[in-house]
Amino acid sequence: MTTLGATAIRAARRFASSLPALFGVLIFTFLLMRVLPGDPAVFFASGPNSGKEEIETIRKQMGLDKPVPQQLFLYLYDVGRGNLGRSLMTGQNVTKDLRERLPASLELTFSALLIALVLAIPLGVLAALKPGSLVDHGVRLFCALGVCVPTFVSGLLLIYIFYYLFGVSPDPTGRVDIFTTLPPAHTGFLLIDFALAGDFDGWWAAFKQLILPACTMALFVIAPLARITRASMLASLGSDFVRTARSVGLSWWRIIITYALRNAILPVITIAGIVFSTMLGANVLVEKVFSWPGVASYALDALLSSDYAPVQGFVLLMASVFVIVNLVVDVLYGIADPRISIG
Amino acid sequence: MGLIYSKQMLGAAAALALFTAAVPANAQTRAETLRYVTGAAVNTLDPNIPGSTREAFAVSLSTYDRLVSFGRKQLNGKWVFDLDTIRGELAESYTVSPDGLKITFKLRSDAKFQDGSPVTAEDVKWSLDRAVTAKILGKAQLLTGSLTDASQFKVIDASTFEVTLPQPDKLALPNLATVYPIIINSKLAKAHATEEDPWAQAWLKENTAGSGAYIVETFKPGEQVILKRNDAWNRAAGDKQAFFKRLIIQSVPEPATRANLVEKGDADIVIDLQASDAQALEAKGKLQVISTPQYNAITFISMNNQMAPFDKPDVRRAVAYALPYDDMFKAALFSRGDLLAGATWADGKPPSGAFPIKQPIKLDLEKAKAYLKAAGYPDGFSTTFSFNVGQSATAEPMAALLKESLAKIGIKVDIQKLPDAQMSTQITEKKLPFFTEGIVAWLPSTDYFYRNFYTGNQRWNYSSIDNAELTAVAQKARFEADKAKYEADGKMLNAMNFDLMPQIPLWQPSQDAVMASNLTGYTYQFHRQVDYRDLSRK
Q1: A129 and A229 share a domain?
Q2: In this protein, which residues make up the domain named Solute-binding protein family (chain B) (predicted)?
Q3: Which among A58, A171, A174 is the nearest to B51, CB-wise?
């Protein structure tokens, strides 16, 4: 129990020490958006008759008529109160937009990561057990294909096969069939919410919508995960303790899982953490192809139209997610290898 | 002599093909639901909010009524909106006084807001006051119809309403049929107004208070809007209801996915497919593809007339004669639309005062070289040609052909692709020398085009042309009541435009509406979106 408490305290301290970095990200993004040559007021004042007056109105509405230091101060003040500003693009508060969209992205990314790990670790282990064999080459080919086909190509291909040709999956438009009633929102994760509400038809509908985009994303990240599993398994299989375990006649299953894999898993966890954060922010193409209402496509649209508040909010969110994921990875280290303590 | 139009008279004519279909007694819910998919998104329920998208405009047409609306006409066998036929929407009838300074509207006695309260002249007054007073988009639009001040709007009695104009203006009435002057339930809106927001803009952005054909059921900005029919609404031509019981307007950003959806029958209609997809679907023949040249929109190649070397008319003429129009049209749009080049004007005079008209110009490198020499650039020059990322599907192939062709007369072109917001900023600041952009006019009359797109130091004057004579003729034409004189002014403007060549009109792209084969009633509208109230299912 005390070790758990100590871990929590260390984690909290670790989190506190990352606050200056978050603050830096906040200011950097703020300034970067203002240095970009696009003027959001001009862009949004694009009605057929919009003139100088509309531009001025929007500029005032966005607070752009004030000097930059004052804008920054006001922005920091707002962020401190949990208000990330208003998006011109959706007309909503950025906090509200992100709160609605983040669960969609998280659900997709978690599922994709789960699929990727379930496939990648056995593949990596298999490849490591027989290096240079046909299996090893097969895994290598599969990984290479997964990583070299861009996600929008594999996404469109999957849609073409499963939706267009065979009609087994529902139309790729968002998280759930448009005629399905949504469950009461507890977590924002539709699979969990449907399960909580006991609506299994709804759960199945949401699952069918999720599986194609999740597979598309998983295909792309299987490669790094499988390759790192293979490399680290190779090192661990060739180590002294595995040789000892073999010599005392332990079952091969025990040798591979308990001794080799547990020791080889650390780098996989690290990579999985990085892959997760990257996927969450960079899965914009998958979100676009499947009309998934996630945060990445939201941020891209905002960036194209120079809508400051959503972009700033998104970067801040991503930085926070990155910090949290790293923290989780550190805690997982401790579980995987008790010799490591975070601090 | 007062002009009196009654909505029944016009309604009977316009209703012919609109509602030919009878509803089957035990119709499936899917058949009564219209699912529309789009790459853009609805961001507000009040079209007046700065930053409103075109999708938001389309939704507002179904959720709100205006005093009047446009009729429709056939253009080359396709239904398009008709600027010259104005029928009543909330107004039962209207009269224009003989001097053209007063328009009196008689409101429908049966019109009710969606909360059941009757529509009164007070509501109309509050709504139009809001449109010209509040800091909203309607203000700049209504200005083009001499509607600028709340004192112009007068309540005569509960069902009679009067608009006074400072001078007779042909665009006053059409302006009231545009997207912005929605009629709002003033009691409901006022209940949500605050001191710093007297016109309830914040509330109306996320709520509706109208009398329109559809009631908002769910509104998820950026994702989807679901509307259900207002059964009490009877303002379609012929006093009919809207056909569909439910509308689903959904954002699907990927064009290939939209094409799949409509081909599989999961979506009923889509208007923003890529030209190649529209062509492929048309060739397969399973779906209906109604392709209407957007006759109120034009794509230009613009040159900055204030910036060397494009400040010399001969340079601009040289560029105009050095473009491979047909090839560009094929490569960019698969020839879907109307090309505005390749005409012959008898004795060099414009055959019509309409705008735009086909220009007597074609690829002629010898002529181009001669003009370039006359301008003092016998060896050509270097410049950059810009377009925005959002248009790359059409602009990229077009720019490549332009670059290749201009190289033949010695003009070296660098192609520059700009994010949309950057492009609009640089256009407004007049920093781009040479670029392509499009324009659209809701009320496409010749003087309107010339006044908005060829005069003044403002964003829409892409070529930054500043020609006193052209400006004077365009301003004079605005209030010209005599049709023959107006036509003469139009011809003069067209002739001057061709001679000065401030920018090159390329084409009017088609709006490809791809829809299920059992849909009827589709009409190309001034706002270039689908008016859901037009549609029905056979």
Answers
A1: yes
A2: 86-458
A3: A58
Q: Give residue limits of the domains in chain B.
A: 3-270+516-537, 297-511
What pLDDT is attached to residue A47?
A: 60
- Please give the CATH number for the structural domain made up of B297-511: 3.10.105.10
Contact residues, B window 195-234, toward A, CB-based 8 Å cutoff: 205-206, 220-224, 226
Q: Measured between CB atoms, which of B248, B260, B441 is closest to A178?
A: B248
Q: A75 lies in a domain? A: no
Do A279 and A227 belong to one domain? yes
B179 SS3 class:
coil
Statement to judge: residues A138 and A16 lie in one domain: no
B321, two tokens:
């004669």
Q: Which comes out higher in pLDDT, residue A236 or B385?
A: B385
What pLDDT sits at residue A335?
74
Domain with A227 in it: what CATH number? 1.10.3720.10
Residue A108 shares a structural domain with residue A232: yes
Question: What is the predicted pLDDT for the residue at B4?
Answer: 44
Do A174 and A243 share a domain, yes or no? yes
Residue A84 lies in a domain: no
The pLDDT, as a whole number, for residue B523 is 93
Domain count across chain A: 2
Which of A44, A156, A306 has the CB atom closest to B50's CB atom? Answer: A44
Name the range with the highest mean pLDDT among A184-198, A239-253, B31-45. B31-45
Residues 46-105 of B with CB under 8 A from A: 49-52
Where in the sequence is the domain holding A57, given as residue range(s)? 2-66
Percent of chain A with pLDDT over 70: 96
A285 lies in some domain? yes
Question: How close B370 gets to chain A, by Cα (Å)?
Answer: 38
Class of domain B3-270+516-537: alpha beta
According to DSSP H, which parts of A81-199 are helical?
94-129, 134-148, 151-158, 190-197
Cβ–Cβ under 8 Å, residues A144 and A247:
no
Residue B381: CB atoms within 10 Å? 15
A187 in the same domain as A120: yes
Domain end residue (candidates: A66, A86, A119): A66
What is the secondary structure of B77-98 as a DSSP string?
TEEEEEEEEEEESSEEEEEE-T
Same domain, A286 and A162: yes
Q: Which of A34, A35, A43, A163 to mutate to test the interface with B (most CBs of B within 10 A)?
A: A43
Spell out which residues of chain A touch residue B253, defining contact as CB-CB under 8 Å. 288, 291, 297
pLDDT at A107: 92
Q: With bands split at pLDDT 50, 70 and 90, how would you rate the model's confidence at A129?
A: confident
ipTM: 0.78
The minimum CA-CA distance between B51 and chain A, rounded to whole Å, is 4
Domain-located, residue A78? no
Tell me phi and psi for residue B300, to 5 degrees. Answer: -115, 155
> Cβ contacts (< 8 Å) between A156 and chain B: which residues?
254, 256-257
Q: What is the pLDDT of residues B372-425, one digit of tens each?
A: 999 999 999 999 999 988 888 899 999 999 999 999 999 999 999 988 878 888
Q: What is the pLDDT of residues A85-109, one digit of tens each?
A: 888 777 788 998 898 889 999 999 9
Searching chain B, which residue's CA lies closest to the CA of residue A167? Answer: B264
For B337-369, b where at least 16 C-beta lie within 10 A, e where not — what string? bbbbbeeebeeeebeebbbbbbbbbbbeeebbb
**CB B272, CB B501: distance < 8 Å:** no
**What's the mean per-residue pLDDT of chain B?**
89
Characterize the bridge pairing of strands B297-303 and B434-440.
Answer: antiparallel
Distance, in Å, from the CA atom of B222 to the CA atom of B67, rounded to the nearest integer, reads: 29
Within this chain, do residues A108 and A42 fall inside the same structural domain, yes or no?
no
